[in-house]
Specification:
This protein has one domain: Metallo-beta-lactamase, Chain A. Helix content is about 25%, strand content about 25%. The chain contains eight helices and 16 strands. The structure holds zinc ion (2 copies). One zinc ion binds next to helix 3.
């Protein structure tokens, strides 16, 4: 399985990009940086975007992606998400006000988007991957994803504060090669993290104790707020007994 990091920050600047991961070229998780980081041909190669939740930093590039693809005469892009997230996208984003309803463009019979509603904890097939949505704890309905090719698996947390189920899933899946886990704020901003449903290094360390072998599973950190990145990294470097790495733009892993 190939993983490419297109966006791994909880904010944006010319050197920071919102959350987007590319898996085996056809599958993306979240759309924070799909058009700002992918050439048109790579945008056209996408088949499916798994969306963790409806917050703008995770869905924004769906707008520009489907607009580009529409003119390229491609088959529709499948947007996979839970019912709550799809409803938010339909009602508040692709609503013919903020952006056109691309399920009817260029024609209802020829949509640029199809929505695929997924159930939490119910594995489904996407090409050669088996995907399972796992509930996490954020301010809106949010899920992480287990993506499994039968030999290697990857878990992406989505935006979350302290949570349980995702760690049980990692414990129950022996071939998880990496856990991509959010950490957004430094410990000094715990109040903001709590109010907005995110982790600090302190709550992250407490959550990682739920893993049976925290030192064995590489934990790749993302969604750091750009102004706080150095402080968060300093705090994370002091955490002992964990296997932490900070994701960078353009990181590329083969599992
Ligand atoms: Zn969020
Ligand atoms: Zn976010």
């Amino acid at each position: 399985m190939e993983l490419r990091v297109l966006g791994c920050h909880g904010g944006e600047s010319p050197r920071h990009r919102a959350t987007s991961f590319l898996i085996d070229e056809k599958l993306a998780v979240d759309a924070g940086a799909l058009t700002s980081r992918l050439e048109l041909a790579a945008q056209g190669s996408l088949e499916t975007v798994l969306v963790t939740h409806s917050h703008l930093d995770h869905v924004r590039d769906l707008a520009t992606l489907v607009d580009n693809r529409c003119q390229m005469g491609l088959p529709p892009l499948t947007i996979c998400a839970t019912r709550a997230t799809i409803e938010n996208l339909q009602r508040h984003f692709f609503n013919d006000r903020l952006w056109p309803d691309f399920t009817r463009i260029p024609a209802a019979s020829e949509p640029s988007i199809v929505y695929r509603e997924i159930e939490l904890e119910t594995p489904f097939a996407l090409g050669r991957h088996r995907v399972t949505a796992v509930p996490v704890s954020h301010t809106v309905d949010t899920c992480g994803y287990l993506i499994d090719d039968g030999t290697n698996a990857l878990v992406i947390s989505g935006d979350t504060g302290p949570t349980d189920r995702i760690f049980e899933v990692v414990n129950d899946t022996p071939h998880v090669r990496a856990l991509l886990l959010e950490v957004s704020f430094p410990n000094t901003m715990q109040h903001l993290a709590t109010a907005s449903g995110h982790h600090t290094p302190e709550t992250l360390a407490a959550d990682l104790r739920k893993l049976h072998a925290a030192a064995d599973v590489p934990t790749m950190l993302y969604h750091m707020k750009p102004p706080c990145q150095a402080e968060i990294e300093r705090e994370c470097s002091k955490l002992a007994g964990l296997n932490l790495h900070v994701l960078k733009l353009d990181d590329h892993f083969t599992f």
